[in-house]
Every structure is written in structure tokens, then in C-alpha cells.
Amino acid sequence: MSYSFTNDQETTERMSEQRDAIYDYVVGQFRVHMANDDIDSAMALADEFYEWMDPDQLENEPTMFYNEDELLRRYLELSAE
After folding, report:
1. Nearest by Cα to 22 from 58, 57, 56
2. Model confidence band, residue 43 (pLDDT cutoffs 50, 70, 90)
3. How far is CA 47 from the centre of its chain?
């Protein structure tokens, strides 16, 4: 099985910006839920995004992503064999 790995500057910056936006949204929503005393929803976010919300792990958590078209193409290749 082959995987492609990209670390070009443009892709790295785009993924970093997307991850930062997700982080900001999750932390913001967590705070909204806590302010509204919606502990269950806050804990659901914390459970799902624990590694991102923990300052000790934030920068060490790897971000994996895929291109949906490439994934579909690979699926069709493998299922045709």
C-alpha cells in the first residue's frame, strides 16, 4: 500500500490554519456550554478533542488528513482487484 506524504509549505500552512480554526471553535463552544451549565455537551467536546484541548499535548498531536477523491480512487482500485 502506498501513502503520499506532503510537507510543502503551502499545504502545511493551510492545514495549520484549518486546525487552528477547529481548535478555536471547539474551545469557544466548550466555554459556551460551560457558561450555560450544559456540562454533558461540554464533556462530549472535551472527550472528543481531549488531545487538542490539553496544552501539554496540543502541539504534539499529529494531524492526519486525506483527499476524498484520492481515497475513493484508491478504494475503487482495491475493490476491482
Report:
1. 58
2. very high
3. 14
Residue 67: alpha-carbon gap to chain centroid: 14
DSSP secondary structure string for all residues of 20-72: HHHHHHHHHHHHHHHHTT-HHHHHHHHHHTHHHH-TTTTTTS------HHHHH
What pLDDT is attached to residue 1? Answer: 47
Task: Map residue 81 onto helix, strand or coil.
Answer: coil
Task: Label residue 62 left, alpha or beta by phi (over 0 means left) and psi (-120 to 50 means alpha).
Answer: beta
- Select from 75, 65, 61 the least CA-distant residue to 4: 65
Under DSSP, the state recorded for 65 is: -
